[in-house]
Amino acid sequence: MGDHEMSLEEERLDLALKASNEGILDWDLQTGEIYYSNRLLGFLGYGRFGAPNILEEPGKHVHPEDLARLTRKLNRVLYRGGKLFADEARIRTNSGEWKWFRARALPLRDDDGTLRRLVGSLIDISKRRFAEKALAEERKMIDLILDRVPINVYFKDKDSRFMRANRSTAQRVGAGTIANLIGKRDHDFFEKEHADFSRARELEIMETEVGQEEKLEHEIWGDGHESWSLVTKKVWRGLNGELLGTFGLTHDVTELIETERNLEQIAEKLRVVNQEISEERHLLRLVIDNMPVFVYFKDLDSNFVLVNQRMADLVGAKSKQITKEK
Fold it and tell me: Are 180 and 278 in contact (CB under 8 A)?
């Protein structure tokens, strides 16, 4: 390959590295010298001279939590014939700051397998890793809240498959764990009629984009038992506005409904009993008032508490209500 071709290849490599924002390293294991490109030196905060060989002494420069993993992967290439070194780890910069780097390196060996050089690249991925950490912490907080609220929360895709849910949802439908629920549909847990109804309702919501707020739904499960829930369902859209499916909040009110029904039954029984008592009193009154004798009842203080009409006429009372005469 001629000098012109070499320079062209080098130019292409340089342009590619600039586009990818990667820095180059070249470790000569025979001399112990290591070369860092200007971009990589900039990542690490060093000038042309004085930059340490990070790969030769990782214990001094790699974060303790990442050291064992990086060392294991590096030794696989250095001593056991590995064909690629690849890892993501935190490396201490010249200022003492820890930054996340993605490292890739290929071993160059002689025909007899002797390792001569390790050539690769580093790229600063701190922003991505910190963003991932922040997202993971935020997700953990959200899951912590969702798993402690007494409401079922779930997200379904356009085919009505559960894509995310809290623990109470998984337990309520009988999946046991969230992992067992993901990818399943209502038809896997509910009686067909109710599952078909839920699917039709979700299709309607996705088509019209009109959700529902705390609608009382009667649910029939696969084993035949019944329940009642207040169900809120709405359209689920992504950050870019694309339709992803629906999300819902379900509050089981079976106990409340059954309590109300029991109270209604009790109230109805009381109404019937009161009606029967009223009828008995009416019959008793008819009998007492038509007796050809004086009938009266007095309390311990000799107050009239009940008299028939004949007795009321005798004492000059205007009604058959309780009097205070002695």
Answer: no
pLDDT of 134: 87
Share of the chain above pLDDT 70, in %: 87
State whether 231 and 298 are in the same domain.
Answer: no
Closest C-alpha to 216, from 239, 233, 199: 233
Domain span at residue 25 reads 17-128
Element (H, E) at 41: helix 38-44
Q: Does the pLDDT at position 185 exceed 50?
A: yes
Residue at 259 is within a domain = no
Same structural domain for residues 119 and 226?
no
Task: Say if 278 falls within a structural domain.
Answer: no
Q: Which pair of structure tokens corresponds to residue 127?
A: 């922003």
Q: Classify 296 as helix, strand or coil.
A: strand
Q: What is the CATH number of the domain that holds 237?
A: 3.30.450.20
Write out the DSSP string of 166-200: -HHHHHHHT--SHHHHTT--GGGTB-HHHHHHHHH
Question: For residue range 29-75, what is the model confidence (pLDDT) as tens digits?
Answer: 999 999 998 889 999 999 888 899 999 999 999 999 999 999 999 99
- Tens of pLDDT, residue by residue over 237-250, are 988 889 999 998 88
Residue 119, beta-bridge partner list? 26, 106
6 found inside a domain: no
118 forms beta bridges with 27, 107
Q: Which residues pair with 251 in a beta bridge?
A: 230
Is 284 domain-assigned?
Answer: no
pTM for this entry = 0.54
Task: Calculate the alpha carbon distances from 97 to 45, 120, 121 in Å.
Answer: 10, 23, 20
For range 124-153, the mean pLDDT: 84
